[in-house]
Structures are given as structure tokens and as C-alpha cells.
Amino acid sequence: MSTEVRKPIISGNWKMNHNHFEAIQSIQKLAYLLTKDDFAAVDVTIHPPFTDLRSAQTLIDADELRFILGAQHCHESDSGAFTGEVSAQFLSKLNVNYVIVGHSERRQIFGETDEVVTAKIVAVQKHGMTPILCVGETLADREAGRTHEKVLGQVRAALTKRSVEQVRAMVIAYEPIWAIGTGKTATAQDAQLVISSIREEVAKVSSPLAATAVRLQYGGSVKASNIAEIMSQPDIDGVLVGGASLDSAEFARICQYRLRKD
Ligand code: PEP
Is the whole-model pTM more than 0.85? Predict the structure, then answer.
């Protein structure tokens, strides 16, 4: 089921790091380190905090950089009495193209349920952007042998009411929660096992066409030293990188994984 050519996608989730001055510096440094060939080989999305987006967009547009601008979160309504929230509609006006939805920190710290996650996916696609849907199990789920049940349940919930076209346009990131920011990484083979079962689930709940097209990422303590092995797995089309994306030199090395043997 993994025969279609899917362009690799490497995403940097800065979380609540880098003010807008630091964001500009980081993007400039990354732009200096990456080549035209790198951008031809991989899509690079960067997801700064909301307050950095306008500065990042202006820089990307002015210097014609090939980064794809992303956000980390959005509200599912277009506007209204939701103090402190930012809508998908507002993000689309900033040329944001990708929005992370259902990150485990949003699910765990801010109580986002599968229903809320589904509503955000609908809002993101309604405004012409691509959701990066995050799914993943806790350590307790994993130790109880419930990894597939948990992850595939999140996938099923998120894909309800999405057309084949909408599903194939999505990105799904498998992020085992015990591997996020902990320095622990799933083995490439373990990640492949879960990710291939996500692809099979997409075939069942949507269609085989969507399953061969949808891009699937791994996330959880990805670094320059482990990316090549992760990307060598047949169903893994990219990575979602947190901590290591804050260091432009390290993130550039991650984006250039295909050039190295280490
Ligand atoms: C993340 O924030 O999605 C993530 C995978 O973080 P880290 O790479 O730091 O584990």
C-alpha cells in the first residue's frame, strides 16, 4: 500500500518558544543552510507561536523563501466570544498552509477531545489549509498493549465526515506521547508498525486511494542522528520535530537527512 510517491514532509513545531525577533533569526539562519535541492526533495513546514506568524510570513514572502508556514493550533469557530483564541480563518489570511491539530499537549493540558479535534480539522480544511493531525498513545496505554486501539481510535474519530479528497490531503503524525520531549524514540521498526496500521485504517474508514496518498509522519525526539533510519521505513513520509527544531543547524541537518549516512 506504500507505492505512491509521497513527497517527504518535515515539520518544526516550536511550541511556546522563540519570540518574533528570535523567529526571524531562526528562519534566516535556516534559509542560509538549506539549498534549492533540499526544498525540491522535502516540504519544510515551520510552526512558530501565533505572535511570530506575521513576521515570519513577511520574511518568507519578501525573501521568496520556500518554507511553508504553519501554525500550532486554532479555534474551530470562525469568530466569536472565545477570548484568547485564534481562528482558522485568521490563520489562512496570514498565508498559513498547515495547522497542527490535536497535539498531545493540547489534548492533555487543554483537554481537547476527539470531537474538538474533528471540528478543528473541518475548520482548517474549510479555509483551504492542511491539518497535521496528531495521534499517539501514553506510556500506560503502551504498557497495557493498547497502542493500536488508542491510535486507530483517534484516527477513526478524526476522519469521520471527511471525503476521500479531504482525507488524502491531510497529514497524520504518529506521536507516541512517551517519546515527546523525553529523549526516548520509538524504534524505527516500531514506528513503522504503528504507522502502517494507520495507513490500513485510513483505507478502511476512507478509501485505499486516500490511504496511498495521505502523508504519515513520526514525531517524538527526532534528531539529526536518528532521522535517516526513521525515514528509511516504507510508510513513514516525514517527521514532526519539537525540541530539535529550535536549533536551526540541527533542524537543517534533519531536513538534509537524505545526504548523510550517519
Ligand atoms: C512535538 O512537539 O510534536 C515533538 C515531537 O517534540 P520532540 O521532538 O521534542 O519530542
Answer: yes
